[in-house]
Amino acid sequence: MSEKKTILLVDERENIRKARRHQWLTPHFPHLTEGYEFVEAENGHVAQRLLIETSIDAIIVESHFQREISGTELIRWVRQQPQLAHLPIIALMMYSNLASEAPAQVQPLLEAGADDVQHGLSHPVYDQLRAFQRWNWQRPERQRPGCASDYL
């Protein structure tokens, strides 16, 4: 890989960021994760600052954090920024395991501009990395809700 890519993970819970960091740094799949940088934000304000001040190539955002700026609000803000609107975004859902609740939680995220919504615990970091690679580090062309999941 000639150019290092930077992925922003936004989640207010340190234990989840720690688990993601461990997945990222695990030696089990070094060929998938080498050449990438993984930066973290503990809330929406920190994420906004990093997105303005740092060169970010893709975003993974936990959808249910509530402090200051929600995941949905952050996604909507990114899509409103001309210099950021092209970034691919995967939203992670952590709390609901009920299939009946999923559409009500997924739809607002897709409407805000998420390119895909995944259950955070069942999709490891390297699955999201492969999605970003397939999308060539741009928003997927097909914006049909859930289109990115079709290929995971």
Structure commentary:
The chain has helices at 14-25, 30-33, 44-53, 71-80, 102-112, 125-134, and strands at 5-10, 36-41, 58-62, 89-93, 116-119. The protein is an alpha/beta fold and 152 residues long. It has one domain: Response regulator (Rossmann fold, 3-Layer(aba) Sandwich), CATH 3.40.50. The chain has a five-stranded parallel sheet, with helices on both faces. Strand 3, helix 4 (71-80) and strand 4 (89-93) form a beta-alpha-beta unit.
- What oligomeric assembly is this protein in? single chain
Summarize the amount of helix as a percent range: 25-40%
How many domains? The number is: 1
Number of helices: 6
* Uncertain spans: 142-152
Largest sheet: 5 strands, parallel
Would you give the CATH topology? Answer: Rossmann fold
Order of helices and strands: EHHEHEHEHEH
- Give the name of the CATH superfamily: Response regulator
Strand content: 15-25%
Alpha-carbon distance between the two ends: 22 Å
Q: What's the level 1 CATH class?
A: Alpha Beta
Task: Give the overall pLDDT as a whole number.
Answer: 78
Q: How large, in whole angstroms, is the Cα Rg?
A: 14 Å
Q: How many DSSP E strands?
A: 5
Any idea what the CATH architecture is?
A: 3-Layer(aba) Sandwich
Task: Kindly report the spatial arrangement of strands forming the biggest sheet.
Answer: 2-1-3-4-5
What class would the helix/strand composition place it in?
A: alpha/beta
| Principal-axes shape call | globular
